[in-house]
Design brief:
The chain has 4 helices and 4 strands, in the order ααββαββα. By secondary structure, it is mainly α. The strands form 2 sheets. Strands 1-2 form a two-stranded antiparallel sheet. Helix 2 packs antiparallel against helix 4.
Length: 145
């Protein structure tokens, strides 16, 4: 995995610069970074979808409940919708679980797939690059370039 030297200083500098940004500018930069992250995550989550399963309307499949939310401060969150009620399944698949039943018998541990962490690792450089380019575009627009 690549490493950013002085990442804390870089984050503080970006925070200082972005304090004067409008919500639209923050949303633009964050959405640009999300454009690199979200498709990779969506592909990994969709891999759990069974194409032979007929749609029954409710309950939705976990992959159908993956959403992006834009907050009032311009930040963007990715997760599973509360309405879909599938976040707990996504966490089991991601983190793994100790299998059991009402008798508590000796069942094996089901390892997690860690799709969330692997997506973060895979897209880290692309997200940073996309957000840096978007931030540069915002700054260039502000100074009239």
């Amino acid at each position: 995995m690549s490493e950013i030297l002085n990442e804390d200083n870089f984050d503080r500098a970006i925070d200082e610069i972005s304090k004067s940004w409008t919500m639209q500018e923050r949303t633009f930069v964050n959405n640009t970074g999300m454009g690199a992250f979200y498709p990779v995550l969506k592909t990994k989550v969709d891999a759990h979808k069974d194409p032979t399963r007929k749609p029954v309307g409710y309950p939705e499949h976990m992959a159908d409940t993956l959403v992006k939310n834009v907050n009032k401060d311009g930040s963007i969150e990715v997760g599973f919708s509360k309405k879909g009620n599938k976040a707990y399944i996504a966490r089991f698949i991601n983190d793994g679980w100790q299998s059991s039943n009402q008798y508590g018998g000796p069942y094996k541990y089901i390892p997690g797939e860690h799709y969330w962490e692997s997506t973060e690792d895979e897209t880290h450089d692309a997200v940073i690059k996309a957000m840096a380019q978007a931030a540069k575009a915002v700054m260039d627009k502000r100074v009239g370039l």
